[in-house]
What does this fold into?
Amino acid sequence: MTISTNLTNARRSAMKQSGAWNDMIITDYLDKAVKQVPDKPAIVSYLMASGERSALSYRELNGRVNQIAVGLVSLGIQMGDVVSCQLPNWWQMTALHLACVRIGAILNPLMPIFREHELCFMLAQAESKLLVVPGVFRGFDHAAMATRLQVELPSLTHVLVIGGEGEHSFETHLLSHNSERTHDTNALFAKRRPSGDDVVQLLYTSGTTGKPKGVMHTSNTLFSHIRPLAERLVLGAADTTLMPSPLAHQLGFLYGLMMPIYLQTTAVLQDTWLPAEAVNIIRQEQPSLMLGSTPFLADIAEQAIDHGSSLQSLKLFLCAGAPIPSPLIEKAARHLPTKIISAWGMTENGAVTTTRLDDAPSCSIETDGVPLPFMELKVTDIEGNTLPPNQEGSLWVRGASLFVGYFKQPELYGVDDDGWFPTGDLARLNEAGYVRITGRSKDVVIRGGENIPIVDIENTLYQHPAIQALALVGRPDERLGERLVAYVVLKEGYSSLSLEEITRFLTEQHVTRQYHPEFLEVLDELPRTPSGKIQKFKLRAQATNHFNSHA
It folds into this structure.
């Protein structure tokens, strides 16, 4: 498949000249690791359901990557084809991405929480030829869902199940053959090697117009911020990384899948977030770096009250996805030897800003950091005029790690002639260039670091027979950042509606559980402007005041 992007020759030339792009791809870094540290653990995996721990050296990982790559070719995967996977934090996801890059295919990671409602759209739009899933994970039968989806999606030629049997067996199709005997892998991989500007990742982000958008990244855009981030945090081969955040999320993908290979270090993967088990993992593996959204930091800080002696290896925690409450920083400082790094970014950019190692702890409370090298920010008023420091306005970003377009939707790219991308966030910049995200102009709620596509969920709920009108808003939550509140006006003839009924309806519509409202209030009418637009700012204030007073 030929992939169309919004990348221009002018941008490429400027990025190359600046040194931001070096045209290296992740398999180049894998090859270097295999030569230099072949027996070093590349991935250590912890499966919470079984208690199993497994480890793969760089040599072993490379062997499996090459097998999978040849297997993908045998299944008919061509250069530019999209391979989707809905996998937990298992070594197979890392290997699958590396294998896709080996043969010039594009990996499309999908969050394990997604169900038919979300997946049917994403897989259809991506024209995925292959979907790789677990059999059963956290009590849900992914294999059964995937086979149902395959019936509905003509382009989905193959479904492979890890631990599956027969025609759907991942192991049979991709790991049971000897790739060196059946193919000249060196010639195959050389012929299929993507350039630094070829799309290697397709990751869907929550949209504001009802449906997700497919964000396209190249090796150049991804590595152009991995390298500066590693340098800013002074990370090296000795820094084992613990990654409990999903690899199918940009944070997990970049720093739990890609960055460890770049650094030639070990990635420790936990497939289900269980804080007490994380303590045991840290005690065993001695990671120096952990990354995640605010709930992960909150939970590990809570564990540190009783188990601080087991967490002494943890020198850095990069926290992104929502502002960090000051009590959380104070709790972490009391019980952990950990420097808290605040960061802000997007699926479209990865991390754009971080605080610095020598910043005061208050900086991680009061700001979301300063831009990484090769990245710029500006704040403008409604007319697009750049505002002076400390004034709130619309946040724009430009630079090396900016994505190269939305899949099949080039008109939505939104980048202006000078390379600036509108983030949809409201923010202010101080005199030193540190940013503070103050709100969002786009209609998204972020729960536990995961964007909830409000318009899509509202459109689904409007199909409920009892609902005349509704609005979904977020209310602040110390642990998760925000929780979802539903304000509903009932149709004539209906006297009541319960949260349990809404949950049951969304479950029947196969909507991701994490996207369900957690609070409900039935109103006689919604606040509106004279033109009829719902005034969500009033509902947000009401949600914050009402539900906090009852907490």
